[in-house]
Amino acid sequence: MDRFKQAYDQYQNQTNVNEINEENATNRNPNQEKIIAVRKNDDGDLIGFQTESGRELDYLEALSEAKAGKLAHVDVFHKYGRDILRSEPDGIKENNLNSLPEF
């Protein structure tokens, strides 16, 4: 099992995860990286993310970086008993995480 699938499986088994700190959500870092590509599992779930600098993040790493304000144009919200990473709603389907190219 690769590290992306392993981290996603660990993420899916999480419950009682702390919700995002509102201060982190509003304090944006000017050095944020954009996510430019994603990795999906066989069910089509996002399990990995590639940034514009070429870094490859598993789901847990991406959640942590998004909460810390290090990733641009993504939001973290609490649903289904855990934190979820989503694209910021801007009305542009092409830049949604699910619509990005795969790596």
UniProtKB/TrEMBL annotation:
It comes from the Bacteria. InterPro entries: DUF3892 (IPR024997). It holds the Pfam family DUF3892. This is DUF3892 domain-containing protein. It comes from Metabacillus rhizosphaerae.
